[in-house]
C-alpha cells in the first residue's frame, strides 16, 4: 500500500491485490454451484464441468517428461473460459470502499480528507 498526496487536503490510499495462483485453486464444486445459482444454461454448465474434471497434466523440459497427474482443481491458464470461471467464483466478493476488480486483480481506494 502506498500514499499519494496531491498537496491538497485529500489523501488517497490505494491497495493493489493480485490473487496469486488464482486460476490454479478454483474449486470445481464451488464453480458448479455458481453456474447453477447464476442460471447458466445447462449445456454450458455440463460442458464446462466435463472440460475441467479429470484433466491431466505433465511437465516437459527438453526431452525429459514427468509422470502424468490428474488435476483436481483450477482452470487452465490461457483458455477463454479461465478468466470467466474465476470472475464467476469471485463475483460476489465486495468491499466497504471503492474498488475495481479485473479477473484476479483487485484495487481498493481509500480517500481521506485532512481537516
How would you describe the overall organization of this protein?
It is a single chain. The mean pLDDT is 83. Helix 1 packs antiparallel against helix 2 (42-52) and helix 1 packs across helix 3. The chain has helices spanning 28-37, 42-52, 81-90, and strands at residues 2-5, 10-18, 56-57, 60-61, 64-65, 69-70, 98-102, 105-113. The chain is of the alpha+beta class and 115 residues long. The strands form three sheets. Strands 1-2-8-7 form a four-stranded antiparallel β-sheet, with no helix packed on it. It is flat.
Side by side, the strands of the main sheet go 1-2-8-7
**Class from helix and strand fractions:** alpha+beta
Total number of beta strands: 8
Contiguous helical run count: 3
Largest sheet: 4 strands, antiparallel
What fraction of the residues are assigned to beta strands by DSSP?
Answer: 25-35%
* Helix content class: 25-40%
Contiguous runs where pLDDT drops below 50 for at least 5 residues: none
Distance between the termini: 22 Å
Order of helices and strands: EEHHEEEEHEE
Shape summary:
flat
What is the arithmetic mean of pLDDT?
83
Rg of Cα set: 20 Å
